[in-house]
Specification:
- By secondary structure, the chain is α/β, with parallel strands linked by helices.
- The protein folds into 2 domains: 118 residues, Conserved hypothetical protein from pyrococcus furiosus pfu- 392566-001, ParB domain, CATH 3.90.1530; 130 residues, no CATH class.
- The longest helix is centred in the middle third of the chain and has 20 residues.
- The chain is globular.
- This is ParB family chromosome partitioning protein.
- InterPro entries: Chromosome_partition/occlusion, ParB/Sulfiredoxin_sf, ParB_N.
- One of its GO terms (cellular component) is chromosome.
């Protein structure tokens, strides 16, 4: 188990959904629901779950180490048009189990089955559409896992959809299940939920709170959403281009963006690829003023986070600092 020791401890610490690391309260919930072993081939992925499915080999090793999947997958009770049960929780565990089966290493006592419980997102006591209930169920399982740039962007969109839907349904308070998810739920002495107000809160604030996103990160992500072409966004969501590369790519003329995407077809686009393209482009590069303000505000955020009241420089660093400030002033005049 040598090379997986570090990652295994992290999985256990975070409770990422493979080993039995859920809270006591969650364990009691599982006991109350019937665990059924379902054939892997009778399970289908959720079309709304386009999050990355990396590190499957690592998860597979964890399954072998644990002797099987200890935390059940969650399926929608009704079969789909293909006669299969659709996942809302545990797709990576399911894929890792199938990988082990292909390798002939899946625990034999379970044959071709994985532990599951049936739970319909429609039953969630949240006044939103069935699709957004499924999105919330998927988001609930993504809390602890490491996320790609595409995952973070998709989460931002899902949370935005959920809060917009709540407002559209006339809700004025945050449902208990959402508040519990964010760890902000408060209860009185009798155990009754004290509702958190939805009215008066900006969607931006809510998405930052529930998506665990800083104000600077939120501004950068929204800027990309507003300026990137549909093809660039699809590349980002499918992790075929890094976030920093997208931010620079949107500054290129539209034709150059198309050329870049065509040249890099089938390859992941990194920042260096975009910078190379920028160097080849003749003429001026136009920058969005709002984005420039955002970048300066991000620098100020970093400065504010420093605990010391003063910033200490070496003589060489101070000269660089003064030079950068002067150059920036000249550029913006």
């Amino acid at each position: 188990m040598g090379k997986f020791k570090k990652d295994l401890s992290r999985e256990i610490q975070l409770g990422a959904g493979l080993l039995s690391t859920v809270s006591l309260e969650a364990k009691e919930d599982i006991k109350e629901e019937q665990i059924t072993y379902i054939d892997m081939d009778m399970i289908a992925p959720n079309k709304l779950n386009d999050f990355s499915m990396d590190s499957l080999e690592q998860l597979a090793e964890l399954i072998v180490t644990a002797g099987g999947i200890l935390q059940p997958l969650i399926l929608i009770p009704e079969k789909n048009e293909e006669g299969k049960y659709v996942l809302t929780t545990g797709e990576r565990r399911w894929r890792a189990s199938r990988l082990l089966r292909e390798q002939g290493r899946y625990p034999k006592k379970y044959k071709n089955t994985v532990p599951c419980i049936f739970r319909n997102p429609v039953d969630l006591e949240i006044n939103i559409s069935e699709e957004n209930k499924e999105k919330f169920a998927i988001l609930s399982t993504n809390q602890a896992r490491e996320k790609t740039d595409g995952d973070k962007m998709r989460e931002l969109q899902y949370w935005t959809d959920i809060f917009a839907d709540l407002r559209a349904h006339g809700e004025t308070q945050i449902p208990e299940s959402l508040a519990a998810f964010a760890g902000t739920a408060q209860y009185d002495e009798e155990g009754n939920y004290i509702p958190e107000q939805l009215v008066g809160k900006k969607t931006k604030e809510l998405v930052m709170q529930y998506g665990d996103i800083s104000s600077g990160e939120y501004a950068r992500m929204r800027s990309v959403q507003n300026n990137a072409s549909e093809e660039l966004m699809n590349k980002l969501l499918s992790n075929e281009i890094s976030f920093s590369a997208v931010r620079e790519a949107v500054k290129l003329p539209e034709k150059e963006q198309e050329n870049l995407l065509e040249e890099m077809e089938g390859k992941k686009i990194e920042l260096s690829d975009v910078e190379k393209r920028q160097a080849e482009v003749q003429g001026n590069i136009e920058l969005n003023k709002a984005e420039m303000v955002m970048e300066v505000e991000t620098l100020l955020e970093h400065l504010k986070k420093k605990k010391e009241s003063k910033v200490e420089f070496t003589v060489k660093e101070y000269k660089k600092y003064v030079s950068c400030i002067k150059q920036l002033e000249r550029l913006l005049r």
